[in-house]
Amino acid sequence: MSSMSSVAGLSKYITTLPKTKISIVNIIIISFLTGSVYFLINPMDGMGILEKIIYGGTFGFCIFGLSSIMSGGMNQHGVSTLHGINLKTKHSMFLSFISMIAVCAIVIIGGIVSTIFNMDLLLNSIIFGCILSFAFNITVLWSTSSIGFSKSVIIGAIQPILILTMFVIVSFFSNLGVTTELGVFSLFLKALIGSIIFALFIYSFITVVESPMKKNLGIGVLDLLSLFIAHMNEGSSSLEGLFENMGESVETLVTFVSFKTKKGIKALFISPCVHPGPLGDIGGSNMPTILADKFDNFTMVAHGPSTHDLNPVSTKEIDKIESAIRESLDTVEYSSIASKFTRYNDKKANVGVQFFNEGMVVLSTFAPYGSDDIEFSVGLTMMAESQKICNVKDSVIVDCHNSFSEESGQVLPGNPEVFECIDAINKIECPPKEESTIKVGCCEDLMDTLDKTSGVGDSGIKTMIVEVNSQRTAYVLFDSNNMEIGFRKEIAEAVSDLEIDEIEVMTTDTHSVNTLSRGYNPIGIEKRPEIIEYIRKTIKIAIDDLEEVEVGTATKRMNLITFGPNNSTELISTISSIVAVSKIVAPVLFIVAILITIMWIFY
Q1: Helices (H) and strands (E) in the chain, counts
Q2: DSSP class of 218
Q3: Backbone angles phi, psi at 593, to 5 degrees
Q4: CB-count exposure of residue 126 (10 Å: 0-12, 13-18, 19+)
Q5: Do residues 512 and 280 lie in contact, with contact meaning Cβ atoms separated by under 8 Å?
Q6: Where are any strands of DSSP class E within 332-378?
Q7: pLDDT in tens, 349-375
Q8: Is the pLDDT of residue 8 over 60?
């Protein structure tokens, strides 16, 4: 699995939070139970069990529950007023709920310790719990809402202040006497000093882990995180702004085959050397669908040789690919010259080859072995080698992307797979250029009964039948991020009874399906019989759609703003190093902060 997919895998930790009313109900229940449990394990003379439960529960709700519900609404309003992002009411209420649980847990632990050692730790337990909730609040708010550290401190302090204030009020009217022992001033002083200790540790930690990314790429980790969450929750494209700042201008290629009837273009088979990433709807992630929809005719956008280095920084870069194709379409020369589909292999490398007019299509796969993206320079080498061997003008290289396992690696310069691909290409037997009868039939299906959880993107499945001199080849393209290893063979066997001679199954490598449970989401993990039925259906319809065509090919250079080979690697390595350092530094700083705070409060 690629490094970018590993990072995208973090999306599985972003879940749909409960509705506001559910969080409120939970706050009421937990706060009431906390008060009841505390009064039961620290009984007051003259109270029965039922009285302790009711009185204690009311005490807990007033101090912890009511203040947390209030802070849930106030936090959201505060962040909104400060032009922050990501904190809707349900998020704010859930944050207050989680923070309250921390306070309640500390209070219960303090109650148990008080009973065992005959001490009164209620007040200090509440202060310590409030400090921990304050630290949690500012960490979450600073990391996700884009309001900065100082404003996060202000908003994060609302809940602890409300809890302590409610405690003072309730203590005064219930004659508990806890506020007179220490005094209100001393209570808030302890909370203030403890909060400052944690705030300093959090600020120091974030500053340390952010510095490498700001220095290397000019973007902040927290900016990246907050905009990533905004995209996951709301579909915001603001993250593209960060990518544009770190992007690089590159020159790459788009190659295609055009099939034309007397009425006009019937089908386009496009292979851009541009990667459909990084994830969701950011950059070029949904490029196969966006680009195909720009053309009125049937259009297949296959996966050209490219890695995450060639992710477009924004969706507007896809317009440049469209322009390059349209410019080339104006100059394409058509003829009836074509060859039958032929396969060649060398060790793990397999290529399916078909010649069209002055060009050729090379479908590359390593199935049944696992593989991931073919790097751009490797694709250029394959292109140059095939052009030289067969003396063609255009070589449409396609990474079929149809055999994936978690251990799959990219095909990079120096890998043995590179030479295996070249050796397979060198085995190609170039047919004489002769007029042939060429027919093409098309079918597309959105696969409405499946969705992104099954690895199916917006374009579903597209099938094109190419018939040359009575040989029928099915080009089947799923709008998916790779294919589960072994599924390709199962598909070929399942359609062997249909009226076709050859079949190759490809995926677009769309990363629009990667916002879900996995950083990768290949088709074929589930619902294979249903997927196969879609293939059989589209093949039959495409056969019925066969009509005679002429064919032409083209190759066009274009300039795009992409992640760039340096920045893509830098981003992944920096994130990886930050995660590695955080695993060591964060626990150490957290423990030190806790020890200092405990010493300040309890001694």
Answers
A1: 19, 13
A2: S
A3: -60, -40
A4: buried
A5: yes
A6: 342-346, 349-356, 359-365
A7: 999 999 999 999 999 999 999 988 999
A8: no
